[in-house]
Structures are given as structure tokens and as C-alpha cells.
Design goal:
With 252 residues, this protein is mostly helical. It has a single domain, classed as Ferritin (Up-down Bundle). The protein has ten helices and no strands. α1 runs antiparallel to α2, α1 crosses α8 and α5 packs across α7. The longest helix is centred in the N-terminal third of the chain and has 29 residues. The N and C termini lie far apart (37 Å).
Length: 252
């Protein structure tokens, strides 16, 4: 795989993860536990979709085949998606959503902090903007981790269940392959070992403060880099892509 192909693949991994998590959060519209939180989640969803739009637009330019962000978002099938498995997991109850967001937001925070130093000027510029947004996202989900974890017995148990169920998806965040190796060599992408170290430190600190036990399971679920997903992504894409595929030439 050459540099152009590697960069395209890497941009898909970043853009797809933001797009899918953004869609998942949008499903809370009108269903939030309180009005303020309903609005907050939708605004966060919009941030992720905006980030995905920038990344997929650039991915299309790097690919050089005339595809734009809409083509990449709506005209690819499940096996062509590269989003992290954790992003496609169902919302569950509100505590489960917060657990998923905290784990993913922490990953995004440290990853994009590194990407701000990328030698690819476009990626670096996107990272600077995104890191400002993810700083708010992480603060928001961290506060809810404390409120739910150190709250009543029911909220504590629901949050613990969410962390337990999602823990097996966290290890693939830091998997590296030949794409990462080439981009690390070129100074475009960071070494995920550094991101992992910071992620583990922050996550453990927050879990301890929230009185949530760190899962001990060693089972690891992975496969997104090869387009292998859980059964949930197919249903998500069927909903997300329906209108565009039904009316591919429509102008809005």
C-alpha cells in the first residue's frame, strides 16, 4: 500500500468513526432524559458529523476518483466502512451512552491532540478545530460519569454495566498495521502506543473517582480495519443511507 492509499484509508478510519458515533447520538433527539441534555447530545452529534464531513471530503480529494463526502458516507456498504466497533454499538440506556461516549471521547481527545502536530497540513488543521470541540465533549461526559457513578445505586449499576459491556471494544482503538506504520514514518499520524498510555491513565482516574470498577476481562473484539463489523452497523446504515440511495440525484 503506497502513501496515497494509506492516507485515504486512515482518513476513512477517522471520518467513519466520527460519522457513525454522530449518527448514534442523533438518535437521542427527542429522547434525552432532560431537555438540556437532549439539546447537548444533538449539538455534540453535529460536531461529530461536521468533523466527519471534513475528513471524508479530504479523503475523496486524496483518493482522486471524484467522490465527495456524500458519496463516501452514503454510497459505501458495510464492509467498506472503517469505523471503530465501539461507535456502532446501540445507545442502550442513558448510562450506557455516557459510558460509550466517555471511552470514545477520551480516545479522541488524546488522538487529536497528537494529530495537531501532523505534517499533513489539512489533517493538522482539522485536528486543531476538532480538539477544541472534543475538549468540551470529554468534559461533558466526564461530569456525567461522576454524577451517575457516584449517584444512587441504580445509576451506579447501570453505568458499571455500560463500562463492562463496552470494555471489549476498547483495545482495537490502539491497534496498528502497515497503514499506521507508513504514516507514522512520514510524520502524518501518531504512534498509538502514546495515545493508549494517556487514554489508560485518564480513564482509570475517572473510573476510580466515579467509584466504577475497572473491568478485568481480557476478551478483545476487533476487525474494523478489515471492514468486519457487528450486526448493528448494517441496520444503522440502512436507516442513514436510505433517502440518499432512494433519490441519488436529488438536490437539496
Amino acid at each position: 500500500m503506497n502513501l496515497q492509499q494509506s492516507k485515504f484509508e486512515y482518513l476513512l478510519r477517522l471520518g467513519d468513526s466520527s460519522l457513525i458515533i454522530g449518527h448514534r447520538l442523533s438518535e437521542w433527539c427527542g429522547h434525552g432524559p432532560i431537555l438540556e441534555e437532549d439539546i447537548a447530545l444533538i449539538n455534540i452529534a453535529l460536531d461529530f458529523v461536521g468533523n466527519a464531513t471534513e475528513l471524508l471530503t479530504y479523503a475523496g480529494q486524496v483518493e482522486g476518483k471524484g467522490r465527495d463526502a456524500d458519496d463516501l458516507a452514503y454510497m459505501r456498504d458495510e464492509r467498506e466502512y472503517r469505523n471503530l466497533l465501539i461507535t456502532e454499538q446501540p445507545n442502550g440506556d442513558y448510562a450506557a451512552t455516557i459510558a460509550r461516549q466517555f471511552l470514545f471521547d477520551t480516545y479522541m481527545f488524546f488522538l487529536y491532540e497528537e494529530l495537531k502536530l501532523s505534517k499533513d497540513e489539512t489533517i493538522a488543521a482539522i485536528a486543531v478545530k476538532t480538539h477544541k470541540e472534543i475538549t468540551y465533549h470529554l468534559r461533558h461526559t466526564t461530569e456525567w460519569m461522576y454524577r451517575l457513578g457516584d449517584g444512587p445505586a441504580e445509576s451506579h449499576q447501570r453505568l458499571q454495566n455500560g463500562i463492562n459491556d463496552l470494555w471489549m471494544f476498547t483495545s482495537e482503538m490502539f491497534d496498528m498495521d502497515e497503514v499506521d506504520a507508513l504514516l507514522i514514518k512520514e510524520g502524518i499520524a501518531p504512534d498509538f502506543n502514546n495515545v493508549k498510555a494517556e487514554w489508560e491513565k485518564r480513564v482509570k482516574e475517572v473510573l476510580v473517582e466515579a467509584t466504577i470498577e475497572i473491568p478485568t476481562t481480557t476478551f478483545k473484539q476487533r476487525g474494523s480495519k478489515e471492514g468486519k463489523h457487528s450486526e448493528h452497523l448494517g441496520f444503522l446504515l440502512a436507516e442513514m443511507q436510505y433517502v440518499h440511495r432512494a433519490h441519488p440525484d436529488a438536490k437539496w
